[in-house]
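BUG: 3D viewer hangs when loading the predicted structure for this chain

Environment: internal workstation, default settings.
Expected: structure renders.
Actual: progress bar stalls at 90%.

Input used:
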Amino acid sequence: MHDRSDGNPLFVEALAAAPAGATPAPLRDWLAAAMAKLPDTARSVLRAAAVAGQEVRHALLAAVSGLADPELELALRELVDRQLLVVREDGYAFRHALFRDAVLGDVLPGERRRLNLRCAEAITENRSLVSQPAAELATQWSAAGDLGRALAPAWEAADEAERSYAYEQQLRMLERVLAWWDEIPEPATLLGVSKVVVLHRAAEACSSAGAFEQGIAHARAALNQLADVDESRARVLAVRGFLNRRAGRGGDADLEAALDAMPADASPDLRGQILAQLAVNASRWDGDAQQSTKYAEEALRIGRDHGLLAVQATALIASARTAAIAGKPDEALRLFQEAGRFAKAATDQYTLLTALLAETYTLMGSGDYARAAVVAGEGRSLAYRVGQGRSRGADLAAVLAHALWLLGRWPESREVVEDALAEDPPPMMAGILLDQLAEIALAQGDPAVAADAVARSTPLLTREVGRTTLPVFVAGVHCRVALAQGDFAAADRILSDALGDPGFFGDPWSVLRAGVQLQRSLGVRVAPREDELRELARRCTADRPVQLAERLSFDAEVDGAADVAAWDAAVAAWRDLSQPYQLAQALIGAAESALAAGQRVAAGDRLRESASLAQELGAPSLSREIEQLAVRGRLDLAVPEPPQPKPEDPFGLTNRERDVLRLLTSGRTNSQIATELFISPSTAGVHVSRILTKLGVTRRTEAAAVAHRTALFD
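Structure tokens produced before the viewer hung:
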């Protein structure tokens, strides 16, 4: 809707009232009246321009219209004066995309096909008439009904899109080729490749575009046409194995079948990549570390012997993951960074992003959230630049949001999540991001948003992992959302499923925290459930600072509720870390235990510090809990108000919104803003909308005026 309306509020309103995809009746009526007043020549030029595109160069319009220069220029003057077209540097554009839609709706089918044919012939003769000749030729020839002449340009356009990291456009072009394949005589002769090759490339494009299920379907179709066990079959199996892993369904079977399908003289690159991928798969927390090491060492040997940098990078990632699981974070970080250097040298953007993502996981596991946020932010920007915003960009956004959440930077975390969800990530990642949104919204006192987020994430996650119960790694937040809704039965059911899951994966302490909260909410300890919580806690390692702080909090809650020393130990552990929310919760427990021990001064000190943290975080539910404890214990929470720093601006803009506004005041379009800030145009549009709301204006020019008037920038 934003693209079609060009951000015009009146058009947005009209589009909202019209059927999906239709041009609103008021606009059609207005344009019909405007066109009725035009001379015949001007009307025909307008139709030719609409068929040629939203923007059209003068030379192309002249070729399509077939008019002599004086006659064409007179018609164009009429259209420009009536503000139906606007002048560009070397041609013309429709003032609004909806105008073009309405004009196209007025073009008769026969006339439109004739104009498409003229466009195709003109571009074939002179490719400089358009900026993307291959893609435009595919569009115009197919619209003219000549699929045979559209096929080769579509294949060429797919190549160009891949070189530009425009993987979604590449996929669209390849799927056009596949759709036309059976309608054209001898398409393989026209392209010089078989349908299997096209399907294979489409599957590879899906892996970069984040369309994993679509890619699996293309790979399956290719395998159905490959009867022989040879290198081609091995390559397609390897791609499908990779796609299955990215979709959350393993992929080992395909990769092992690919190894079996390879002939003895298969290319070292293929053998090395399959071995490296098997090493990565086996390096999971519940995988086979010995087997992973064996695969990785063989892949590294092949990579070094044949100078295959990308193979070495993937194998190093597997080795690094094994080191991280073995409790060697420093070695893991070194290997991930080395893998990144190899991938960068090989211009293998996906593997480079994978190395950065794995590095952020290791930093998160070590409790270095600030550094993890920096690496994740840089990786996310790179993902957008190389066309992988929906795939690896979404993964990195999830880590960035989680790191910001733990650091107490909740508004930034929520903004990252909402921006990532706007990019329509793959289902599994969408579910994880929605649960992160639920966690933030719950802490910010917005239970309705939290409930809606988990309701949307549940079918995504259960479907992706092929089960009816939730994956354990999100059970904690779902349990807490159920508690916030007062649904104790649902909370207990979620907790029971998580505790009984033999394939426990994820943060166990999140589940343990939810279990303790449920026990407290019930007002009575359920012995069997408490025994299960104790057993899980007993199995959890606590050899890192964050895990140790979690264990101390759990032990104080379950075993030492009135033990001031136990709670103070938990407070001290959290104070050494950068997690203000957990510190505030531990301080509440310490205050409650101090009250029970009759230490009112100590209780007041702890509760006031917790209240200050809750206020800084913007955590109303935590603040209410603190106030209720203060009332019960007759404690005074009043403290001298610290001087408030002068805000950077009076409108509450985030740093990113200030960056966008700075560019907006310089006259940049959303696309230009997106390019400069390494974000997508849709994300830039979301930022602009928020800025207009915060500044209390409705237009970009008004926002620029406010920025100048209030001297927001030097």
